[in-house]
């Protein structure tokens, strides 16, 4: 006989957050720079996109909510644990059959201090979400209503858009998508960001000045690594 599960479980790391200085280091940094600083890692699948083209860029600590498909009890329960500036990561286990959240959930998240909502499901109430003003990254729109019966978990490891996310990881989201920086890698990634920005700036200048082919690619084309058939 299966034991009746608890409606909600709260993980031990629900209060873990980066330092204010670590959070500040990611403000205004493009997602592409963050991915490059992690050697190409961290990006969620392209299906998780900004709800509208007007969504502002956001960077903040993750607070995770692990929901069963078609349910949002964990998302609602996580509202009590939101700290100012958190990005609420609402896992729907990829379920597309109904909304993972709507304008009222987004409104309550905004009232609780959340900076954004990221989910691997669709959302509903587009006009209401826009009015609330909470930036949302999701898989699209679906007017179907979810349940709030659980079971669900708060502050535990989830996988959203192919990326593992734990509470306290940094989430950076902009018009290109969503990137996750693991808590243990924050300082290493922060240390690389200035060099990434410098290299990107130099290449931008070269392109504006007429660059047609990067030197490393020219070396490959002209060297032994290229075979002409």
Would you write up a description of this structure?
By secondary structure, the chain is α/β, with parallel strands linked by helices. The protein has a single domain (8-203), classed as Ribonuclease E inhibitor RraA/RraA-like (Glucose Oxidase, domain 1), CATH 3.50.30. The chain contains 7 helices and 11 strands. Strands 1, 2, 3, 4, 5, 6, 7, 10 and 11 form a 9-stranded mixed sheet that branches. Strands 8-9 form a two-stranded antiparallel ribbon. Helix 2 (31-37) packs across helix 6 (186-208) and helix 4 (103-111) packs parallel to helix 5. The model has no long low-confidence stretch (mean pLDDT 96).
Mean pLDDT: 96
Order of helices and strands: EHHEEHEHEHEEEEEEHH
- CATH topology, anyone? Glucose Oxidase, domain 1
Outline the biggest β-sheet: 9 strands, mixed
Euclidean distance between termini CA atoms: 68 Å
Whole-number total of structural domains: 1
Determine the CATH superfamily.
Ribonuclease E inhibitor RraA/RraA-like
DSSP strand count = 11
* CA-atom Rg in angstroms: 20 Å
Global geometry: elongated
CATH class: Alpha Beta
Find the structural class using helix and strand composition: alpha/beta
List low-confidence stretches. Answer: none
Number of discrete helical segments: 7
């Amino acid at each position: 006989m299966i034991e009746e599960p608890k409606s909600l479980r709260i993980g031990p790391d629900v209060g873990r957050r980066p330092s204010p200085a670590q959070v500040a280091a990611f403000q205004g940094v493009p997602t592409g720079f963050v991915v490059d600083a992690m050697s190409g890692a961290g990006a969620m699948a392209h299906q998780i996109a900004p709800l509208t083209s007007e969504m502002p860029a956001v960077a903040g600590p993750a607070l995770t909510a692990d929901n069963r498909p078609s349910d949002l009890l964990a998302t609602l329960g996580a509202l009590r644990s939101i700290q100012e500036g958190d990005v609420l990561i609402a896992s729907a286990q990829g379920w597309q059959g109904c909304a993972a959240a709507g304008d009222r959930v987004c409104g309550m998240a905004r009232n609780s201090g959340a900076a954004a909502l990221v989910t691997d499901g669709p959302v509903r109430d587009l006009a209401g979400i826009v009015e609330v003003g909470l930036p949302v990254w999701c898989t699209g729109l679906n007017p179907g209503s979810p349940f709030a019966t659980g079971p669900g978990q708060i502050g535990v490891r989830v996988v959203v858009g192919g990326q593992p996310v734990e509470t306290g990881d940094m989430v950076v989201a902009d018009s290109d998508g969503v990137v996750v920086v693991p808590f243990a890698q924050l300082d290493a990634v922060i240390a690389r960001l200035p060099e990434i920005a410098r290299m990107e700036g130099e290449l931008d200048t070269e392109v504006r000045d007429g660059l047609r082919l990067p030197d490393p690619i020219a070396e490959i084309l002209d060297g032994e690594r290229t075979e002409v058939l």
